[in-house]
Design brief:
alpha/beta; two-stranded antiparallel sheet; 6 helices
């Protein structure tokens, strides 16, 4: 009887300390982000990966915004960071800094749930689609984009810009209601009276005086769910 008990305990120990219980590395990022992904066949996974690779490297002029080559999908440490991720100097672009402002790929904060920002507000990392009245950490922006989203930031110094931003908020709220994955927030990294729209490997930055609904809506519709390596976009948008 004793040998049987020992064998049973050994087998039980093997179950409890394998797979997802072993370490974070035992679960693929896609599985962690999407519980349905373990049921995905190898052929489907390959198709998802190929589609993401095509989207990531598509530098064609048919897409809105400027193409910025991918800087990878690496995680930083958890928030708050002891050292912010800087913007790259034009003559020295690598994976330790951001090649565009707002960022379009590269180092980003991991999934952390809700945290208290150093400015006092509570924010889920990565942020859910929404209109925020406080700045999102720049290191969270690539994670929004990695999750198939579009980031819209603004920095205003004049009443004319603030009036434009009210139109922008209405537009983004409408797009979110239709199922688009969009995050809008103030962005102190931008110049005064400037709007920046970014997705994975695409960016469009312009003065508030050059704003139009069509410009921002066109960017959102072109880039929402264009890059979706973790399969966040299961449902079709309403429009």
């Amino acid at each position: 009887m004793l040998p049987l008990i020992i064998v049973f305990l050994v087998l039980l120990n093997g179950v409890l300390y394998s797979g997802v219980f072993q370490s974070e590395n035992a679960v693929s990022p896609a599985s962690a982000a999407n519980p349905a992904s373990p049921d995905t066949s190898p052929q489907q996974k390959s198709a998802v990966a190929l589609a993401a690779e095509r989207a990531e490297t598509d530098d064609s002029d048919r897409l809105p915004g400027t193409f910025v080559p991918s800087q990878g999908r690496q995680h930083t440490g958890t928030y708050p960071l002891r050292q912010r991720v800087p913007f790259c100097a034009p003559e020295h672009v690598d994976s330790s800094c951001y090649a565009s402002n707002p960022p379009t790929s590269g180092l980003h904060l991991p999934v952390q749930g809700t945290v208290r920002l150093q400015t006092g507000q509570m924010l889920k990392l990565p942020p859910d689609p929404g209109v925020y009245d406080f700045a999102v950490p720049r290191e969270a922006i690539p994670h929004i984009e990695e999750h198939a989203g579009v980031y819209v930031g603004y920095q205003c110094a004049t009443d004319a810009c603030r009036t434009t931003v009210e139109r922008l908020k209405d537009l983004v709220t409408q797009e979110i209601s239709l199922g688009q994955r969009v995050v809008l927030s103030p962005d102190p990294d931008l110049s005064d009276d400037t709007i920046g729209v970014a997705s994975w490997t695409r960016v469009d930055v312009f003065g508030a005086g050059d704003y139009s609904d069509e410009r921002v809506r066109g960017f959102i519709k072109a880039h929402h769910c264009r890059f979706d390596p973790e399969k966040f976009c299961k449902d079709a948008v309403l429009n």
